[in-house]
């Protein structure tokens, strides 16, 4: 019966044709060109190049910088996803209570999103700078020796993950606040009558009903984190060497500075495939966990 | 307990304001003042604002930003909402594939497509034009828009569509008469998230908008930083100027923003 | 309610479309009006430069004067700052170049195939002999108008050098001795050289300077071997080792890996560093912070026995004309305007460099005395521009960071250089 009513809904598919047209012209076509470039030794600007087959992909797999970069990218991606969600949820829970001025504080937590990440990176660079950096200034007050925070690769990766989290946790928080508000209050009342404590309410009511919000946040944060670029450029430029570079910054470096556009394109395609697999898998897995009310 | 909660609240507020304090300090300090970033400028100056405003032609840049962001957002919302309806209502295998295709457009690294995209826009005569910048921005914000809208629409009860079809609406009318008006809250969300991305976009704008007459704020400010010269305090001032309009817009849309997410998207 | 919302969104759409349409129409009208009004054909020249700040203002002012003198030519000036090179690469790839553009040292090797031959221009005869080889090739093609010529070497803080009782070092050994004196006398508070290594290129600058005395300027040199690709890269090991040793002895700033160029300028301005391995422009940047800074320019110290100090030279501020420009005549006219004595002089002065045309007198402000003093010092081209294929710069920089961070040693540095050298040479 229902089937019949919606039988020929295929006609409605024409509604996504405009969007697909946009994608076809501005993304698919250039993307296919990009795949072609990855099989050349093009330098990124001249009119001469030749096809070199899979050479650039082999370069990529044998370059030790690729693997440093890869592990950094994974930390940026999963690290900031984890931090943004844990902190975002904690903030959302805290700011969901009856408190005065909570609206103001929510706005403040969201504000960093408004600044471009490049500028945000510069601002935080002034915190972690060695000479005259804001943190070393405070440490000097307590007589501690200044630390060159960003000189150490793994530490720089951690700091950048933190900065990225700081900037975008406002989005996660806002999505969680909205999610919390959509949970009917009587669920909690019923649970209280049954004598459930805070933790079991959180585990049995809040978390399952927040799954849709978690899906949105996790997918958006994974994609954002794995593609991280601006903050890194502003804070360390991927350095020292490649110690804090991400796939995005390495690709940029290969493309423009090293003039190895073929290699950059190969890395870009690899990066696309990697992020697509990770994010679409998590999207499908998380969707399955969502419960319908 | 209450005092504790309010102390935490204050602490959160202060911690998250620190970067803005530093930014404002940079914008207000004269270049020669190299005192600690924590010290608020003792001899405050508006020079950085004046210089940034004049040298980067920020009045023109602001207009360009408004035109490009405004038009992009309108198109993003319209095209995104249209596309999301069939994708969320009729989840055939084919449509699920299209949905994932849209999501993967979010993942494409900008740099792999930059040169082919640029060459194509050159051939279309679109360099230094509003329309090419707008169409590019729309394309790159659509995936996120579709992601949010589809989530929202699937939470709108199907009974509404069915009621509409009994009333004699055809399938398109159902969308325009019944679904579209319900999208108001999520639209606020989409406007804020995508609008910000377009407003702050640098990676495409730096290539597509090089003439002063079409430059946006991030592009205009980039001329203060070069290899051999830095006017970081001018950039800071320009950044404050660029932030103001969006902050106001955010405050205005904020109440819809949270509701938008509460009403639907996050209900799945 | 429902209707109201719909109509509002439609209205916004209409208004915005109207606005955009107006924007583009407005411009279209302007150009067509003027075209109708005058008998002469109006042209719009697009001009692009990597230069920003004070120097860009000088270039812009001359362009404005040019427009007053040539009312039929409109000049669209763009200065994208740090992304100039990248935007130009994308433009080259798409064969969509500005009519006139700056080549910042790469007129032949990078931009060559896109540049028109300017050897037929009247000003070509006035080209200063010392810059000529940098901007012309064997066939006689003249690539750009060099308005000034680089004469680069380290800069130093005159007052600090006096305070520590030091002379300007002529050899690297003297330089090391001076660095040791600075370190002990200042109790580690002042460093010999400050490098903003987080920006990467300042490290490359050190290598670029020091490679010349190491490999090129001495009587026994590797210049030819580098050019014909037979260079034995183990000979290069010494250079990164020198760099590393200098760091290990504490002569560089401790935060060399995380500080930026702007931090270098700040440190130099505040008297926390004695030398800057940048170029004359560095003095100006530091003076923005401390206008009372007393700084001078010196040649690059020699390394090999019996060698003398040298300057690094080549093109700096240039204009080239796109060979496929639709307005090639107007573009040449524009370039010729900058070749006028007063304009070339103004540009060279703003960079505190000698002019690129012999018809123009040198006026490099406070630095003039140094150019006079060292007028017999040989000027050799920047090492990377001649002896390394285009694209090696980043290898110098990134490996320089890596060796300080302990990721590689001097041998691996040279190995990486060799690998990229061969890849990029093969592409040519």
TrEMBL record, chain A:
Keywords: Cell membrane, Membrane, Transmembrane, Transmembrane helix, Transport. Residues 70-282 form the ABC transmembrane type-1 domain. The chain crosses the membrane at residues 12-32, 74-95, 107-127, 156-178, 209-229, 261-286. It is a multi-pass membrane protein. InterPro entries: ABC_transporter_permease (IPR051393), MetI-like (IPR000515), MetI-like_sf (IPR035906). It comes from the Bacteria. It is found in: Cell membrane. Belongs to the binding-protein-dependent transport system permease family. This is Carbohydrate ABC transporter membrane protein 1, CUT1 family.
UniProtKB/TrEMBL annotation, chain B:
PROSITE patterns: ABC_TM1. The keyword Translocase does not apply. It is found in: Cell membrane. It is a multi-pass membrane protein. InterPro entries: BP-dep_ABC_trans_perm (IPR050901), MetI-like (IPR000515), MetI-like_sf (IPR035906). The keyword Transmembrane applies. It holds the Pfam family BPD_transp_1. Keywords: Cell membrane, Membrane, Transmembrane, Transmembrane helix, Transport. The chain crosses the membrane at residues 7-28, 62-85, 97-118, 130-153, 174-199, 232-253. Residues 62-253 form the ABC transmembrane type-1 domain. This is Carbohydrate ABC transporter membrane protein 2, CUT1 family. It comes from Paenibacillus macquariensis. The lineage of its organism: Bacteria, Bacillati, Bacillota, Bacilli, Bacillales.
TrEMBL record, chain C:
Keywords: Cell membrane, Lipoprotein, Membrane, Palmitate, Signal. The keyword Membrane applies. Residues 1-21 form the signal peptide. It comes from the Bacteria. The keyword Cell membrane applies. PROSITE patterns: PROKAR_LIPOPROTEIN. Pfam families: SBP_bac_1. This is Carbohydrate ABC transporter substrate-binding protein, CUT1 family. It comes from Paenibacillus macquariensis.
